[in-house]
Amino acid sequence: MTNSDIWMPAGSIEEAHQRALTWVCDAYLFYLVSLHRRPVYRHQYGDISLNQPALKGFIKDKGWDMERRWAHYINILDLIKYMHRSNSEFIDWGTVPALTPRGIRWMNACLSRQGEMVNSYSGWKGYIAAVEEVQTNEKGI
Question: Where on the tree of life does the source sit, at the highest rank (predicted)?
Fold first, then answer.
């Protein structure tokens, strides 16, 4: 993999965005597993269990245009560590992407805010009920 493959793979900005988003999600999930032995964010009000599709859906829609999101994902990835990957002297079949400390703080802040919002609705069931109510009201308009 060359530097140009990371910055703009053959294809489009959509492809570059999806690749960077996947790397960010994988990096954060591996970070969580290294801390807690499972992909879970520990919030003060309870655990938030995660998988890659859920995390992708959560972080990809932050109100920015696609190019800005792609640039942000590239900035929070530790690409130097990823490009110079060598985990083993014996057999090295690759490594996983890693986030910078700033990237970890950003992801933690996003999930912390989500936990605060869910708690303000008295838990996940209350949050789901509120979302369904809003969707019902929007259909009636």
Answer: Bacteria
